[in-house]
Sequence to fold (290 residues):
Amino acid sequence: MIRNVTESATQLINLQGGDSHLAVDLNGAQVAELGEDFTVTSKPSAQTIFLLVNQNEEVGQVTADPKFAEAVRYALNYEELLQLAGEGSVQATGVIPPMFTGALDSGVAEDLERSKTALEESGYAGETITLQFPSDNPVGGVEFTPVAERVQAQLKNAGITVELAPAPFASQIEPYVGGQEAFSMWYWGPDFADSSSFLPFGPGEKVGLRAGWEADADPEIAELVSTAANATSVEEREQAMREYATAMQEEGPFVPLIVPGINLASSATVTNVQNNTNWTLDIPLLQPAG
Fold:
């Protein structure tokens, strides 16, 4: 029997109590509570938690200035954010997670001086910016609320006032998909196990348009998307994906934060627990112990 349990704390209780044989969304701290009777496999997932900074003036007003996104990008202490993610998690080095072709070796580092300079150039005048995010949908055991609280505190250090607006996933998803959120935190994973699953972040593409980022807003990156999508050889694809990832790290409306870990925790009653890039768990491979 498969049960959809959104609270990772409840998953832990069920696993420890014997009501469940396997849990897929425990965070690092919860995994540490499990004893020798349980088996845990931890590794970076294919999911990325990111901030969206809307480029549509009618939606975001001050967020629409590219300098505001730059200010946000360099205001954050990514190592401190990563502390909230636990075992198996890594900093997101860009829109392409580390297991895929084209992923960058290192991510953005905090630079408060650069952040404050960009903020001044953006025209931001102390307005309160609302950060929206789904409050009931942890990814890889990472709860969004504590991450949002730490983002809020770090942005305050850079001079950006943020008000948190958590809401259930069911009510949050429509304005996000419709491009109506000025500043929000979301996640993205591949539809299939290939780097092209992350090209939708580009200008004029599906996720790019959710951030009000039209193709003509950045023709150079739009061209990189096209080049990466049409590259055929392994060498051409790797180079094109890396150039795209590099450009997206340097500018644009997305600030990648964390690649959550996958913590597959199982009791001694289950064997052959294996991760699947797309679906987290390869259910057909599961076998009862003995």
User: Anything to note?
Assistant: The longest strand covers residues 38-44. Residues 48-259 form a domain with the Dipeptide-binding Protein; domain 3 fold (CATH 3.10.105.10). Residues 234-250 form the longest helix (17 residues).
